[in-house]
Amino acid sequence: MQYKTWSPARRLLALLALLPLTVLILGTLYMLGMDHLEGSPRTLLQALQWASETMTNTGYGADNRWNHPVMAMFVIITPFIGQCLVFLIFPVLMLPYFEDKFEVRLPQVLPPMDGRVLFYRYGPAIESLVVEFENANSPFVILEEDMNQARSLRDRGFNVVLGNLAADPSVLAPAAQARAVVTNSNDHANATCTLLAREYGFTGPLFALANDPLYRAPMVQIGATEVFTPAHVLGAALASRASHRISPPAEGMHLLGARVGMAEFRVRADSALAGKRLGDLRLRERHGVAVIGQWFGGLFTTAKGPDTQVQPGAILVVVGVHEGLADVERMAMPIRRAGPIVLAGYGAVGQKVVEMLLDAGEACTVIDRLAGPGVDVVGSVLERASLDKARVREASAVVLALSDDSESVFATAVVRDYAPGVPLIVRVLRTPNTERLYRSGADFAISVGQVAGQILAYHLLGEQTTHVENRVKFIRVNAGALVGEHPWHCEALERTGSKVVAVERGGGVLVEFGEGFEVRADDTLFVCGSLNSLERYQKAFMTASA
Fold it and tell me: Span 372-379, mean pLDDT?
């Protein structure tokens, strides 16, 4: 059976009819009670006056004593009836009428879609992407089926249309002229949107975000250009951050043999390095090591000159002779890269992380509240007993793949306090919560919106929207325009963010340079830096691979 919902106008008419009817009924009962029970007759006008005064709590006039118990009970109940009408029924019937009359109505028809991208349903997977679209001044429209969500999006200034494809498929007809379509609902609704868009003549790129990878092939078959599974992409990103076997820390390290090493150090707040400028620390001159850059707040920034400040809590990437690295270790906490990787949260994302880590040959320890295949420790990551059992302090990394951001914040703080030196990678459900997790102690916080947004932005905006210098590389180049310069005292070199860590000269490799050292034309240089900084170096000094 279907029940019809009254419109706000009909609710208002019902209220206008209900109020005088209630006053009439109560007034009539009062008139009869005063006549037959109290023996003090009242006219209907007097009775109606009493009823209205009582319901609105304005007073009783001369009628303030009643002797009969039934009459007294009636007088007691009547004010509560009035209160019920004023405070309960009135808001239910009256306020929706005014809300409907004065609020800005949500559009229910798509505007002309020439040059616009249509997003079908809003959610965490595209929240960062729509912000990128706004920043790039690229037009888009969100087709949303949930009214509360649509109102929230409208209040934030987004171009949103309220529509339901199941109830009215024709709302999608104007999408035939869209530049692209992105479906972000559940898999069945995405399939419906894909079919309808193609039926209405849309021939452009259509990208679907699927929850289950089993739907990828069928979605392509019915018209999707490409289908992405954000949860699996997020799992891959988390695994890549946790494992050096999946994402090696430095490419080309073998070029230097065993004389030069690379290490990562966490800078504690009480460290001699914390808050200091590299120029004041003089790590090269004193210890023969160079700071390539530092990880802080999930971003890797290269060290560009002596004014670069070492952030407390950051992870420094340092290159140099092994003796010098040992000296730095006494000033900062070394990052372990041996031991198993501990994962907490064995849902869909967590299972993908473990799958990738095991495929890479990593040892994994899984913590989850529920026992099941693949779970090694049954318990909460918030409990120290679970952390002890999982031997978190001996881990090479910890991955929190929890499904609630609030729990992730607490878990991040607990794990950071329990194992301050272990790299901590955290899954984020909602991108706006990322900063909160970094403040709690996460080294890397990755959301599904970030990974899905980067993939879609590449296809829709034609560029990577997140520029993170997250790979360190060694290259072997000729001297180029660095001839005559000292590798440690060249301002132009410092500005690139790259570092000369060794010089091959006369069949030998030099890793320490005196004050009078100068680069010769026949020298071969070993340079280290991020991909971006190395590109800046090669442009600045016109070098080529040796």
Answer: 95
